[in-house]
Request: fold
Amino acid sequence: MSRPLRRAAVLSTLVACFVAPATISYALWSVTATGTVGVSTGGVIGGSATYYLSNPGTGNTASSTHLDLVTTAPTLGSLPNYDTDRDAFPGRLLQKGNGLSETDPTKHQLWSVSGPVAAVNAPVKLRLWSAMKDFDTTKKSSVVAGLYQCNDNPNFTGCNLLAQATVAPSGAWSGGSGGWVAKEWSFGTLTLAVPHNRRLYVKVAVNNASDDDVWFAYDTAAQPSALEIG
Reply:
């Protein structure tokens, strides 16, 4: 099969995914030089898009395992405490545990967005601000992130793992910084076809190999952590 025909076959498959049932309207975006494509149905879509890791409200909150990926960039000026039921510090604390297999809500965090989400041969990465607990500048850590397609509910069920990435620097996690540090988890170049009745999930967990627990920062203007597609 020639290259144009292969691309046409991929696009045909994606369109078939997003037009059932027939009441769902759709429109194809043009294919760019990088080969990305999106399908628009009036919802939160991405062929080339940024999905920000969010937290409900604008102030301190108790922890919630299931949070939203949103397309609106955060504007908060200071970082709230996202787990008042666990500690008194800004951000979200994740205890170290069993990586992506972890089910303990104190040891993993989920963000998701409803489909459709489509992309062809698009680079996908997670950019997330973090720090070792107590802003320790010497300890090492290992943090894994997974990208999943799941049922369209907040229960993280019926999931297929699409890609995963681990960041584990040989030196201190903070690189000597006493503040929040941005790191990237690259999922590689992916073709995504998440239909309207499914969700795209990001799961983050701290591996047992970490010297300690890790704090995470997101949903502020200074820490606009996000999943980037395209």
